């Protein structure tokens, strides 16, 4: 590259900034005219990984295909980094391109130079991955939750930052309430987000896992899953109502149970349904306490 072209690529003042051992642009904001829109060729070994990268796994075959494309066509879109000091950079976004460039044997890579604090690092990495890297739904949900927790954002603020509706944000976050088995199935592509959202409506973990297994084994579509989830939810609700009725206790019963418990000096449990049928359970720790309770009844 000629000196004229090099200056045109780097932009006003950027070449001197990058080549000076005294430079540490993290200590002062020089982003303005110096680095806005400028691209530099950076030694690939001088770029550190982004600790806030939300993607945990990369498809090796896809990386190799991208590496081959880079060998033939070069890198169309530069990565984005922040400068930590002389010849030290930290990746903000573009980890897939960086990995593929290493596979392609590149020694340098084109990069936008930016200044970003840790919060911006997390935001930028997440936003780029959501829009360009197709994170799976669990990775997106985890990243949203990290933004809320680590950057103290409300769902409304997060919605503005990532360009998604608040309801979409809420739907992703709800996935994190699913059992681990369901989250893993979604992460690994065994079920879709629509399947997972149907499972969310079931309040019983055992019923969720049973339906999850059925979805995978029978390759159920979303409509079938929603129908079965609706039935499962109805069954769960009916069982809850039955348990509620079985344990129905009028207020005067509660007072009598407390009195009996105090008189026997042990825990007393009573079950009663709406028909008035039920049972009384009196706890005892050992044979000695059992005999004491029986004697107390004999005295009365």
- In percent, how much strand structure appears in the residues? 5-15%
CATH level 1 name of the largest domain: Mainly Alpha
CATH topology of the largest domain: Arc Repressor Mutant, subunit A
Radius of gyration: 31 Å
Order of helices and strands: HHHEEHEEHEHHHHHHHHHEEH
Can you tell me the CATH architecture of the largest domain?
Answer: Orthogonal Bundle
**Spans where pLDDT lies below 50 across 5 or more residues:** 1-15, 20-37
Q: Could you report the average pLDDT, rounded to the nearest whole number?
A: 77
How many strands in all? Answer: 7
Task: Tell me about this structure.
The chain has 300 residues and is α/β, with parallel strands linked by helices. It has 3 domains: 114 residues, Conserved hypothetical protein from pyrococcus furiosus pfu- 392566-001, ParB domain (Alpha-Beta Complex); 121 residues, Arc Repressor Mutant, subunit A (Orthogonal Bundle), CATH 1.10.10.2830; 49 residues, no CATH class. Helix content is 57%, strand content 12%. The protein has 15 helices and 7 strands. Strands 1-5-3-4-2 form a 5-stranded mixed beta sheet. Strands 6-7 form a two-stranded antiparallel ribbon. A hairpin with a 2-residue loop joins β3 and β4. α4 crosses α5 and α6 packs antiparallel against α7. The chain starts with a helix and ends with a helix. The N terminus is likely disordered.
